Amino acid sequence: MSASEEFLWGVSTSAFQIEGAFTAAGRRPSVWDAFPAFEGQDASVACDHYHRYREDVGLMRSLGVNAYRFSVSWPRVLAGDLVFYDRLVDELLESGIAPVVTLYHWDTPLEVEEPGGWLHRDTAFRFADYAARVADRLADRVALWIPINEPAMVTLLGYATGQHAPGQALLFDALPTAHHLNLAHGLAVQALRSAGARAVGTANNHTPVWPADPADQPAAQAYSELHNWLYADAQLAGRYPDALADRLPIVDGDLAITSAPLDFYGVNYYNPTRVRRPSEGNPLPFELVEIDEYPKTGFGWPVVPSGLSEMISLLRDRFVDLPPVYVTESGCSYPHSLDDTERIEYLDGHIEEALKADVRGYFVWSLMDNFEWDSGYSQRFGLVHVDYETQQRTPRASYEWYRDRIRR
């Protein structure tokens, strides 16, 4: 049975958040290296996974997962270092763990961003060249491929609000990045298939959108179009929501590229979103509202396991030919305690909802604590605790729980 047919019990990470080993010769700068640091913290060392990957694969082997989703660093590949990923993939295969590769997890090379980044159409073609280079090296050994992780977050947080790198606050003028990310996705799918990739999909961040009251339904629809359907529609149906299509720089033939057939569909889920109609002076067609009737994670996100199956149902209703679904990210941040009962409760509820929704796999975010973007090291998502001063890894109670759940 291939990795694309059996249920995948996995963990996820991303290159920038864990690898470290930032030197000019080994990895060129990314947009995150130039982004204002949280409390002076940076990811130049992070979890030092670059040097400790064998130890980390050993943790996965002991955990009992049969898949590991990680990302390749575009800036590292530009510096000429694909050897690290060769070694990592071989180490995983020797441990009986299927490599699941994401080509882009938000770390745009600074040299690609400076001419315009995802605001420029040319970036999609530069990304396709990068995808071909990686696939030429790894396609024979990788089980599943994901070109771009959560393009919605790149557009919304990176270019629309400025919360994430590259820190642009363009609001609706950020919309061209959505199309260029979708185009890059489609071009990468083509490049991967040309290189012999076995199974190619995507990993989109999804959130059920709840109106605060019935009169707020138009606001909920507007937010869902921006967060959910701007990407899923283009990738699965070759179209855009009517309200947004005229704002996008579409060239004839683009939508046939964005909707290249996929072997699987990845859902990244953390929480639902509640919205209401905007107050006077708000340039957006919605406002976010706190969801207070559920417990919250250390990040302040509401814990709603049923939102995962709700979202998958929405996807299946909208796309009758939806490919097999994997939950490619789902997890939570809590304080550093090793006896993390709340994380166990979170995972238990979300895994049960995923199984009820008949998905093909579940990837916990994250294997280990890591550098959490604009929050530095203040948030801890890991099944494994990391002491950043000593780099000591210590499995939490949730690690033991997940190992037992996989065995069952």
TrEMBL record:
GO BP annotation list: carbohydrate catabolic process
Gene3D superfamilies recorded: Glycosidases (3.20.20.80)
One Gene Ontology term of the molecular function aspect: beta-glucosidase activity
Protein's UniProt keywords contain Hydrolase: yes
Keywords assigned by UniProt, alphabetized: Glycosidase, Hydrolase
GO CC terms: cytosol
Pfam families with a match to the protein in the record: Glyco_hydro_1
Entry similarity comment: Belongs to the glycosyl hydrolase 1 family.
Entries under PANTHER family matching the protein: GLYCOSYL HYDROLASE, LP05116P
Protein name stated in the entry: Beta-glucosidase
Species for this entry: Saccharothrix saharensis
